[in-house]
Design goal:
The structure holds 2 protein chains of 2 kinds.
Chain A (H helix, E strand, L loop, with lengths): L3 E4 L2 E5 L4 E7 L3 E9 L5 E6 L3 E5 L2 E6 L4 E6 L8 E9 L7 E2 L3 E6 L1
Parallel strand pairs in A: 2-11
Antiparallel strand pairs in A: 1-3, 3-8, 4-5, 4-9, 6-7, 7-8, 9-10, 9-11
Chain B lengths: L4 E3 L2 E4 L5 E6 L6 E7 L6 E7 L2 E5 L7 E4 L6 E5 L8 E8 L6 E2 L3 E5 L1
Parallel strand pairs in B: 2-11
Antiparallel strand pairs in B: 1-3, 3-8, 4-5, 4-9, 5-6, 7-8, 9-10, 9-11
Classes of the chains: A mainly beta, B mainly beta.
Chain lengths: 110, 112
């Protein structure tokens, strides 16, 4: 099956810093989503981005499907950005299950 | 904004007992999913459901698991005889098509 790798696995930032999270996948996809898992365990949808670039406030994401990677940018980080960020993809096989990466654990300190 | 809801938020059960986890998907969605996340691990797919039948299931989804859409609004996951290793966060998700999946807040299942 498709492999989804995220880097870095852990990231510590000072409040106000910028960061880039990366998601690599091993096969063609027709869906890619970014999630933020908050300290209560909830999965918050950030982006649905099978290709192209999207922005939502301080967050933006870019997916280059032909090169099999996606990037999540966090600018001017805040302590509330702390948590785990997951990338998840749907392989281009006709089935719709999301395959999740192992996540990037972000800690933003004041 | 419509959202997926799940009940209960936390369920504690004894090994060997049956549990039913409930989900109310977004009302006009047609595709329904269950995922689980063992503490500290990544989220794993369990099963997808469309047109009143299972469309795909993972190796985890063995005979102890079943899903049902008993009416027009609920989507349930039943575990017949729980094991310690079933302790996890269970997420329900729904989608209108082959697009973005929306996740519920999860049910934390603890098997003792």
């Amino acid at each position: 099956g498709i492999q989804v790798e995220q880097s870095p696995p852990d990231l510590i930032l000072q409040e106000g810093a910028n960061s880039t999270l990366r998601c690599n996948f091993s096969d063609s996809v027709n869906n890619l989503q970014w999630f933020h898992q908050n300290p209560w365990g909830q999965l918050i949808n950030l982006f649905y981005i099978p290709s192209g670039t999207k922005q939502n406030g301080r967050l933006s994401a870019t997916t280059v499907a032909t090169e099999r990677y996606s990037l999540l940018y966090i600018s001017s980080s805040q302590t509330t950005d702390s948590g785990v960020y997951f990338c998840a993809v749907v392989q281009n096989t006709g089935f719709q299950k999301l395959v999740f990466g192992t996540g990037t654990r972000l800690l933003v300190s004041p | 904004e419509p959202e997926v809801t799940q009940t209960p938020s936390h369920q504690v059960t004894q090994m060997g007992q049956e549990v039913i986890l409930r989900c109310v998907p977004i009302s006009n969605h047609l595709y329904f999913y269950w995922y689980r996340q063992i503490l500290g691990q990544k989220v794993e797919f369990l099963v997808s459901f469309y047109n009143n039948e299972i469309s795909e299931k993972s190796e985890i989804f063995d005979d102890q698991f079943s899903v049902e859409r008993p009416d027009g609004s609920n989507f349930t996951l039943k575990i017949r005889s729980t094991k310690l290793e079933d302790s996890a966060m269970y997420f329900c998700a729904s989608a209108s098509g082959a697009y973005e999946q929306y996740f519920g807040p999860g049910t934390r299942l603890t098997v003792t």
